[in-house]
Amino acid sequence: MSAHLYIEGGESKEDQIRCREGFRKLLEKSGFTGKMPRLTASGGRNATFDDFTTKHRQSRPKDYIAMLIDSEDPLRDTEKTWKHLPQRDKWDPPAGATDDQVLFMTTCMETWIVSDRPVLKAHYGHHLQESALPPAENLEDRHRHDVHERLSRATRNCSNAYAKGRRSFEVIGLLNPSELSKLRSFVRVVRILKERL
């Protein structure tokens, strides 16, 4: 059996390396050292879906092929991924694809980042404007633009202000799984990977 996880993120080759590295660190801290799936940072959202679809069609029955993407919008049911994607992105599942092959960051990667306040404080230091961050409650129900804008505003006075790309993937690698366990989407990702790897 082989396992391959396609990740939404990394527009340049350098950013794709950093994306893989950041998520590898997070997965290792989540208990997947020694049973890590192969990680591919595919770049944009549509490219990630295309890579996933191609690999899914080429896979053997026991292989686990999945994609880790932003849900973009809040979800009513985090388990019904293929109900969400055709409505939101006009993506139909490839033949034989199951809901556990779609792993969501709800609603975006920044939701995961803002959920770990101790890491944000340590990483950004005393210039972090914590009051500008979105409230910690019901983070996954917040629109992605709101979460991203608030994170950018909270770090704007920091020398390493938040930005997509290198800086975002650096923070992903610092996150603490115990802090992320407050998020339904993260709990689901860990649960499914433990079942499938």
What's the alpha carbon Rg, rounded to whole Å?
Answer: 16 Å
Mean of residue pLDDT?
A: 96
Shape: globular
How far apart lie the N and C ends? 9 Å
Oligomerization: single chain
The computed structural class is alpha/beta
User: Tell me about the biggest sheet?
Assistant: 4 strands, parallel
- Count all strands and give the number: 4
Main sheet strand line-up: 2-1-3-4
Uncertain ranges = none
Proportion in β-strands: 5-15%
Helix content: 40-55%
The helix-strand sequence is EHEHEHEHHHHHH
Integer tally of domains: 2
Tally of helical runs:
9
Summarize the structure.
The protein has 197 residues and is α/β, with parallel strands linked by helices. It has nine helices and four strands; from the N terminus they run βαβαβαβαααααα.
Write up what this structure looks like:
The protein is of the alpha/beta class and 197 residues long. The protein folds into two domains: 3-109 and 170-196, no CATH class; 110-164, no CATH class. The protein has nine helices and four strands; from the N terminus they run βαβαβαβαααααα. A four-stranded parallel sheet has the order 2-1-3-4, with helices on both faces. Helix 1 packs parallel to helix 7. The chain is globular and about 50 Å long.
